[in-house]
Amino acid sequence: MEAFEQQAVAIILVSLRTGPVFVIAPPFTLFRVPVLVRVVLSLALATLLVVSTPSIAMTAAAAPFAVGMGELVIGLSIALGLQLAFAAILTVGRAIDIQAGFGLAR
Predict the structure, then answer these.
(1) According to the model, what pLDDT value does residue 89 have?
(2) What is the pLDDT of residue 62?
(3) Domain limits at 20?
(4) What is the mean pLDDT of the chain?
(5) CA distances from 87 to 40, 94, 96 (A)
(6) What pLDDT does 3 receive?
(7) pLDDT, tens digit, for every residue of 81-95?
(8) Sign of dihedral through CA atoms 46, 4, 9, 61?
(9) How many separate domains does the chain show?
C-alpha cells in the first residue's frame, strides 16, 4: 500500500472509534447539531489524529475489516459508557428534584 492509502485506511479506522461517540453519545446529542456535522467533525478529528501520529497509518494496513470491527466495538463501548454515566446523573438529579419538591410542599 502507498502512504496515502495507508493514511486513508487509518483515518477510516480511527473514525470508527470516534464516530459513535460523536453520533450517539449524550454530550454531543444534547445540542441541536445535525448528524452530518457530527460525522464531519468525527472525520476531521480522525484525520487530525492520523496526521499528527504517523505510526497509526503503518499499523492499520493488516486486516482492515477485522481491525475495523474491533474499532467499532471500542467506539460503541465508549459511547455506551457515556450513555450510562449520563443516565445515572439524570436519575440522581430526578431523585433529588422529587425530594426537594416534597420538602417544599410541606
Answers:
(1) 92
(2) 64
(3) 3-105
(4) 84
(5) 26, 10, 14
(6) 75
(7) 999 999 999 999 988
(8) negative
(9) 1
Determine the Cα–Cα distance for residues 62 and 1; give it in Å rounded to an integer: 10
Q: What is the DSSP string of 47-79?
A: HHHHHH-THHHHHTSS-HHHHHHHHHHHHHHHH
Higher pLDDT, 27 or 20: 20
Distance (Å, whole) CA 63 – CA 65: 6
| 27 Ramachandran zone, left/alpha/beta (phi>0; psi -120 to 50) | alpha
DSSP state of 30: S
The grid cell for 52 is: 499528527
CA dihedral 5, 11, 14, 16 (to 10 degrees): -100
Question: Does residue 70 or residue 2 have the better pLDDT?
Answer: 70
The Cβ of residue 82 has, within 10 Å, a number of other Cβ atoms equal to 18
